[in-house]
Write a structure and sequence with these properties.
heterodimer, A: mainly beta, six-stranded mixed β-sheet, five-stranded antiparallel β-sheet, globular, B: 117 residues, mainly beta, seven-stranded mixed β-sheet, 0% helix
Amino acid sequence: KNQVEQSPQSLIILEGKNCTLQCNYTVSPFSNLRWYKQDTGRGPVSLTIMTFSENTKSNGRYTATLDADTKQSSLHITASQLSDSASYICVVSEGGYNKLIFGAGTRLAVHP
Amino acid sequence: DTGVSQNPRHKITKRGQNVTFRCDPISEHNRLYWYRQTLGQGPEFLTYFQNEAQLEKSRLLSDRFSAERPKGSFSTLEIQRTEQGDSAMYLCASSLVTGGSNTGELFFGEGSRLTVL
């Protein structure tokens, strides 16, 4: 069964600290992996999209990594800000089937 | 174009009533998706359109749910005889797919939150 598992489920950090969110998937065949940021009560916003051949991709203070061999991805947030408080959702695209498999998300709270 | 637009943003209804949500995608996008999201969970796929054709429907889309995209532009999602379990955020997303099986980069609307009393 194609699944996307995210950890931790929730995380609290202090402003200015770094953190890393994890995503493990069993989706096959694999097309690409995406990270979205979703503020409470809002729609998800794309942070990064990575294909099989990409190991890392950055978007400002957000850096995503992908290990297609172990089927793991991480999202690293540097020098966190209060506005980073949100849910971060990992999404894997199932190759050839036009299907996106969503993780349940990691809820990040950044405290002053 | 300011992105994907969804209306209404919030809807409170009594059990048994019908509700309709509208989604206006980014104008040049040919794909339109509907998702349902409950608290603490990721979005769950409901259905998607390629232009005006509805190409896939999830098992979650019971016979009380119907979606249309009559002219390949805006889409509506109607829920008939609403139940309390239908309470959720209904998200619309659009993308531009120019070939192959890639889903394209999805742009989400702000969602329509449904509360069934």
